Amino acid sequence: VQLVESGGGSVQPGGSLRLSCVVSGRTISSTAMGWFRQAPGKERDFVSAINWSGSIKYYADSAKGRFTISRDDAKNTVYLQMNNLKTEETAVYYCADHSGGSVYYRGNFESWGQGTQVTVSS
Predict the structure, then answer these.
(1) Phi, psi of 73 (to 5 degrees)
(2) pLDDT at 41
(3) Are 28 and 73 in contact (CB under 8 A)?
(4) pLDDT (0 to 100) of residue 96
(5) Which of 15, 16, 64, 122 could form a disulfide with 11 if both were Cys (CB 3.0 to 4.6 A apart)?
(6) Distance, CA of 113 to CA of 84 (rounded, Å)
(7) What are the φ and ψ backbone dihedral angles of 45, each rounded to 5 degrees?
(8) Residue 81's pLDDT is what?
(9) Could you say which residues of the chain have pLDDT below 70?
(10) Is 90 exposed, middle or buried (0-12, 13-18, 19+ CB in 10 A)?
């Protein structure tokens, strides 16, 4: 299984980015997927997750109201739309496939992408 994130970049505070995660090697249609982020010197933290059908979405408190997770199983792709970005959200963003248990815990995700850098700076 290979996960490849894209869509990162540099934006000013208040800007928007849309991250994509394309999965190859197997279908994601029966799997919950998640996004995490890791800033330099910090832990890899939960950002958002989506259940297998797309009917349930989970967000970190900091992301609620500004980020939207979605999935397109026909394209084997998961997205993260990020609006009104803040400087403290500068990090490498990773997607991963869920293997079971709480979606808020990174240990419950099996395969990870290489990450995409998001830099929010004026």
Answers:
(1) -65, -25
(2) 95
(3) yes
(4) 97
(5) 15
(6) 25
(7) -110, 150
(8) 98
(9) none
(10) middle
Alpha carbon distance 60, 74 (integer Å): 27
CA 54 vs CA 5, 17, 27, 51, 79: distances in Å = 19, 21, 15, 5, 12
Looking at residue 75, its pLDDT comes to 97
Whole-angstrom distance, CA of residue 87 vs CA of residue 104: 23
Question: Which value, to the nearest 10 degrees, does the dihedral of the CA atoms of residues 7, 87, 67, 95 take?
Answer: 50
What pLDDT was estimated at residue 107? Answer: 95
Backbone angles phi, psi at 49, to 5 degrees: -150, 160
Dist CA 77 CA 23 (whole Å): 6
Please enumerate in sequence order all residues whose Cβ is within 8 A of that of 118, keeping only pairs 6 or more positions apart, or say none.
8, 9, 11, 17, 19, 37, 82, 85, 89, 90, 91, 92, 93
